[in-house]
Amino acid sequence: MLLFRPLTLLPEGAVQALWLALTCAAVAGIAAAVGRGLAASRSFTGLDASV
């Protein structure tokens, strides 16, 4: 509970905005990692459309 104590000092709207921003950043990071993995597997198997 000590970890979350500083968050209780913020207004609820600020916490929600922070939560939304962090969630979007996490989703974007996962999508980028998956995209890199798919791009690497396509170029490895010779299915790259740019060739």
TrEMBL record:
The chain crosses the membrane at residues 14-34. The keyword Membrane applies. Keywords: Membrane, Transmembrane, Transmembrane helix. This is ABC transporter permease. The lineage of its organism: Bacteria, Bacillati, Actinomycetota, Actinomycetes, Micromonosporales.
